[in-house]
Batch of 2 targets.
Target 1
Amino acid sequence: MADVAEKAGVSRALVSIIFRNQAGASRETRERVLRVADEIGYRPDSAARLLARGRSRTLGVMFTVHQTFHTDLITGIYPEAERLGYDVLLSGATHGRSEAKAVEALLSHRCEAVILLGPDAAPAYLDELGQRTVAVSVSRRVPQARVDFVHSAEAKGVRQAMDHLVELGHRRIVHIDGGRGPGSAERRRAYRAAMRRHGLEDEARVIPGHHTEESGIETGCLLLAERDAGRPLPTAVLAGNDRCAMGLLMALTRAGVEVPRDLSVVGYDDSHLSHLMPIGLTTVRQDAVLMAEHAVRFAVERLENGELQPREAVLDPKLVVRGTSGPVPKAAGPA
Amino acid sequence: MADVAEKAGVSRALVSIIFRNQAGASRETRERVLRVADEIGYRPDSAARLLARGRSRTLGVMFTVHQTFHTDLITGIYPEAERLGYDVLLSGATHGRSEAKAVEALLSHRCEAVILLGPDAAPAYLDELGQRTVAVSVSRRVPQARVDFVHSAEAKGVRQAMDHLVELGHRRIVHIDGGRGPGSAERRRAYRAAMRRHGLEDEARVIPGHHTEESGIETGCLLLAERDAGRPLPTAVLAGNDRCAMGLLMALTRAGVEVPRDLSVVGYDDSHLSHLMPIGLTTVRQDAVLMAEHAVRFAVERLENGELQPREAVLDPKLVVRGTSGPVPKAAGPA
DNA sequence: TACTCGAACTAGAGCGCGCTAGTAGAGCGC
DNA sequence: GCGCTCTACTAGCGCGCTCTAGTTCGAGTA
């Protein structure tokens, strides 16, 4: 920077002004300085910048590398952050790298706020995190912690899915839940409530699972084994999320069960996976882009308006009917 | 830091020493300082650190958010970087955020080196990047550019896969290529060479595609349409990568084509997708962890040993036979 | 006793910027 | 002429840390 200033015949301060696009430099000086900088190959050093201005204007995003829905969210985070003048740094939680570690990395790189995609950490940790920085949790509700929260109205989404299935004549509807996964508890409750509301509580069945393809496959094998043992297949399955639905579809299709002729499957998320099936996956759409935008805005507003109270955004999910749901099979009828 | 020093009754310098895990502080002082720091909630500011020591010890990783194999690589990058004492920053290329932008973000955050996972940028850009910083390209070979390079011996992998299929009696083997995707050109060439070597050049057929599930689905639909128009299905397909293979499997299974009874499918990568099929996907395993480790080591060695020449690591891939490949269907026989 | 030496610790410069408080000088009205 | 304002620019401190070149002190050695 000093080199640029000297070569352009101005002070370092003016160079600084120019690189910050601030008023106070004449057009010609500006051009001259920029030209010189380009020649020298000077680019402002963001570490020094951060240090000097005390603010980094950087948002940290913690995500789980293998969750496809997270990558959908990230796609939405970048443009919104850029629009608001913020940089984004990503840190992944993987097998062997805990969420806490991923978050620490972000924090030590001076992120002013962290956006946590479907965090699985203990509420106490999140609360502590919320105290010491601005934190936004996406998908997972942690009422006890001082963090902003963006999720979709799980109950509404599940209700739409269930109404859809019941309208198609389904009664034997099974739910594969998502274990400790984000939103799972709400979805499970909403499933039970919907079964009750439709007078199907005796048919209600929750099979424990996870938000992974493996879990869908396992459940598929379980259901097939049960069928072979004489217990009829359910006529519809509400999966914990799209990944789980995909796994289930794999296992069933593979075994000759035709979807939706023999059995209907509904996913959750509308991640980019949903389009993979040639017939499309019927699923509950969570608008990843909208959720991402909300998360970014929450973080930025908290940062810029001082100490706002943590807020909650509940977005309405929407059932997207594609090819994996259809009328209840004739043969199956009521159990 | 000053607060910690004062409260612990030592100088800032000593606090610095302790937080850098450097020798020169007694055990008891060390413990006392760390305790005080913990009480105050002090954590070293990495921006100031970078600025002061002139080195960031940070590696930047550019990846494509939706590429599952990239997430497999990332999983391997973290531990190796940590072992060598480096931080990792992730920056994703997405639809709407170019690779160049992702890389700029990394650079301005003071990453000393960038690891590019399957870069699709122009060789000229990569070369320029290689001039101004240490760059490692994973999966994509760019001989014209001054960058390190880690890939697997595509030709060997394809040859193994082809030998396997031919041994099972297949002759009508089609290859869906990966367009401009990393490794595609090599795989395509190797496919052609293998067909020739087995005397099957007349059967060789490369269907243009991409490294995506969509591409697999499209190709599946294409093949099915051709079958309906009278042209027999191939008996085996070598897909451009696992994602493409998965899409293909979806489309075919959906249409009643049983794999591997009616048709064999071989993928490429052995990404975590490969385990999704209940019967498992036969695929060419690229060891993501090993590749990741090589990439990290290349970057670190270049950084620490001054100006080494760019190097190339070629890892041997290995065919993993799972459930999607089997003997050629009786009915099909030789074309 | 006089010294050497190493372990434990400290003073203070400097990393590359941003920012506040300032100056120089041109233009204006009275 | 004077004071005033406005634009264009500058001096220099400080952000929070690392690092070099010390100092202090107690133990060991001749």
Target 2
Amino acid sequence: MNWRIPAIVATPCFIPALCGQDCPHYFFLIMSIRVRFAPSPTGDLHVGGARTALFNWLMARKSGGTFILRVEDTDGARNTAEAAAGIIKGMRWLGLDWDEGPEVGGDCGPYFQSQRKDIYDSYFKKLEDAGRVYAEADGAMRFKFSRTAITVHDLVCGDVTFAPTEEPDMTIRRPDGSYIFHFVNVVDDIEMRMTHVLRGEDHLSNTWKHIDLFNAFGATPPTYAHIPLILNPDGSKMSKRDEGSAIEHSYMNAGFLPAAVFNYLCMLGWTPKAESEKLSREELTALFDADAIHSSNAKFDLKKALWFNAQYLRELSPEELLKHALPFLAAKGLAWTNDTMAAAAVHSVREKVSLLTELPEWVHYFFREDYPFEADVVTKLKAKPENAGLLKAAAEQLALAGEWTEQGVHDAVEAAAKALSVKPGAMMPLLRFALSGQSRGPGVTTIAHLIGKEKTLARIERALVEVMGA
RNA sequence: GACCCCUUCGUCUAGCGGUUAGGACACAUCCCUUUCACGGAUGCGACACGAGUUCGAUUCUCGUAGGGGUCGCCA
């Protein structure tokens, strides 16, 4: 494809007086890229929309251009302020910031279409003056199509030519005077001086209508890039109820890290030229190329999304991890006074989980003394009568430990094992069970060290009495 | 029904006329190991089909099938 992102645009010489007729010169204008994400606030931010926003953001950030957020709330019956707020919340969570739009303002505002009626009225007038509109019986206004062949030059799909249409002229204004999507979308793309439009492929079939409108206004259409859709694993269209579809519900509240979702979504429909798929926001920005976006739809894969999340989770520092885990721990009623200890606790199990929501079940015993003992483990341990003695011996040796470090704990257990002629490996599971009530978790020495000597001994005593019948 | 887009392992994909068709996720096995994991190694596994172009097609063209999308006073 030849139409690269025109950060530099060639335009024929516009001062023929200086050069004479048919002058061969071109001026190279540096045109700043302006892109937008234009959601309609009818519901939560959807993965498809999020990725569209992401690609637009990437394009703007890479080129030093401008990313605009425009809320397309022309349908009073369906749009809600809550939905608009939710979309903004989701974008902020993903780390997408905009240069113009709600909350930040800009020269082309307002950025809610519901507040731009005057602008639309004046554009509508232009169409009226050009004789391109006519009224229906009930007052709705239609735009007279040019009914010529129209070619869409698309960064992703190439040249797509639509034959002169046989569809009825499209309605652009309702009887109540409010305007329809196709009209306001084009008007705003002109008014906000958009240079590129990256949007879902579901819009491709309608793009000729938009170009017809641009032509009617005597405006140059932006460069389009229609990106493929994200489908369910079974290939069906993803809708609100489907797993993984809503940013807030499926990701924010489900224990995903924004960076992981950001990364995963980028891999759906675009492959950066890099060794690894795990790439930071900065790397993705540097690598982004709208021309390299795929033209085929992609199916959503939760397993891979989880893998990305696990990767990001385990490289967080203890403090960062605790910060992200906080709401999820609190939701399970876990509380603490020592942040350093809590951070160390969650950090000790970072390689065992792929979602923040899994954290509580892995660390709850760090924060309370009344943790339950898992039934099947109880049965298993009681089956061997010598276990109580082993545990008691370990406790006695632990009580003698001088320095309460992981090494110190380890040495004590080793000494106790040696005295009874068993391997430390025979004692560790018993201790793990006593200290956590579970059969899995971080290293036993890590648990003991983190909860301290006093609690370690008390917990063993409790297990001995309550479970082992000692 | 009309029009548009798409089609490589189960999934995301690399490939841009000649490759043992590569990688990642998932799955399986082994190693590591006090558990669960992590990590390492290995394995499993694909060019939708049919014509054509060509010395040679996964790659180019056409057709078929399949999937998706659009045809709203929704966006």
